[in-house]
Design goal:
Number of strands: 0
Number of helices: 3
Structural class: mainly alpha
Shape: globular
Radius of gyration: 18 Å
Helix content: 55-70%
Strand content: under 5%
């Protein structure tokens, strides 16, 4: 009898998400990809609908719902990091002498 397949914990998934989303956002930024406010809403929503409905995660009950929500969150974080890359200054403001 084989052991059941281990699924990663939420902690593991969030750690992997942080690493992958930063890498993906940098890749998108390097390719010149731009993100708008409506994409921050539309892309995660479409991802959820695609994973939950089209790919059949709804058949798995609560685990399928969690999977679809997490996939949607992954898409949101990726594009939120891209937005941050485009709109937030990454340089430190000048320090005043004390």
């Amino acid at each position: 009898m084989s052991s059941p397949e281990q699924t990663p914990s939420l902690r593991d998934r969030f750690q992997a998400l942080n690493t992958a989303s930063s890498r993906d956002a940098e890749t998108l930024a390097a390719s010149g990809q731009q993100v708008t406010w409506w994409q921050l809403v539309a892309i995660p929503l479409l991802t959820f609908l695609c994973v939950y409905g089209r790919h059949g995660s709804w058949r798995r009950g609560i685990p399928g719902l969690i999977h679809a929500l997490f996939a949607s969150y992954e898409a949101f974080v990726r594009y939120a990091k891209l937005w941050e890359h485009q709109h937030v200054r990454t340089t430190m403001p000048p320090q005043t002498p004390s």
